[in-house]
């Protein structure tokens, strides 16, 4: 074999071999529009999914901006919100905002969360597997728009759980729904409905 041919083969091998051992990862974009309460998922510019979501409601707005996910938890529960289930969590802010599944699918399409981006558990599982496959380093979460209805709140508003002590002055429980509005008039509904 001539030396020039051997050199060409050796150069080609040193260029190609390192790339064969590495998996090719794509650019994964999770785009959330708070105005429409929709999420689109694209890989290398090709849209794969378009799903309804629930972002932060009044007082708990989900922050706008571009974020990199930094932690994933398949079976997370919220320490802040009474151990609320957050299946397939993908955390994108250090203050605890995440994309995760919800069992309250009737609220999808409305801004009702405490700052997270909720989607159906099935869609959250699909997204979680896709981010795991493409790697967090290659994933961006882009949030834009405003809460529908013009409700504005601080971009990084975080809530505090209700105090547990009943005598705490900050605690005020709402009245029961069945409480009479006029105490001098008899109720116009049967009490047996409430298990007296």
Description:
- The chain has 196 residues and is α+β, with helices and mostly antiparallel strands.
- The protein has a domain at 28-144: L,D-transpeptidase catalytic domain-like, CATH 2.40.440.
- 16% of the residues lie in helices and 26% in strands.
- It has helices at 3-20, 121-134; strands at 28-33, 38-43, 46-52, 65-67, 71-77, 85-91, 98-102, 117-120, 139-144.
- The strands form two sheets. The chain has a five-stranded mixed sheet, with helices on one face.
- A hairpin with a 2-residue loop joins strand 2 (38-43) and strand 3.
- The longest helix is centred in the first third of the chain and has 18 residues, at 3-20.
- The model is unreliable at 151-196 (pLDDT under 50).
* Oligomerization: single chain
**SSE order in H/E notation?**
HEEEEEEEEHE
Terminus-to-terminus distance: 97 Å
Number of helices: 2
Q: Could you tell me the radius of gyration in angstroms?
A: 25 Å
Query: The biggest beta sheet, please?
Result: 5 strands, mixed
């Amino acid at each position: 074999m001539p030396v020039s041919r051997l050199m060409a083969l050796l150069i080609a091998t040193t260029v190609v071999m390192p790339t064969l051992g590495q998996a090719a990862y794509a650019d994964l974009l999770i785009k959330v529009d708070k105005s429409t309460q929709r999420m689109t998922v694209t890989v290398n510019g090709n849209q794969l999914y378009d799903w309804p979501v629930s972002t932060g409601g009044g007082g708990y707005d989900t922050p706008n901006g571009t974020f990199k996910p930094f932690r994933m938890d398949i079976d997370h529960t919220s320490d802040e919100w009474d151990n609320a289930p957050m299946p397939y969590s993908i955390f994108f802010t250090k203050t605890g905002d995440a994309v995760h599944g919800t069992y309250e699918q009737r609220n999808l399409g409305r801004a009702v969360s405490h700052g997270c981006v909720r989607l159906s558990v099935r869609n959250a599982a699909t997204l979680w597997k896709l981010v795991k496959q493409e790697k967090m380093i290659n994933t961006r979460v882009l949030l834009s728009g405003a809460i529908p209805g013009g409700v504005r709140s601080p971009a990084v508003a975080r809530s505090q759980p209700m105090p547990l002590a009943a005598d705490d002055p900050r605690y005020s429980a709402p009245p029961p729904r069945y409480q009479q509005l006029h105490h001098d008039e008899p109720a116009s509904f049967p009490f047996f409905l409430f298990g007296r």
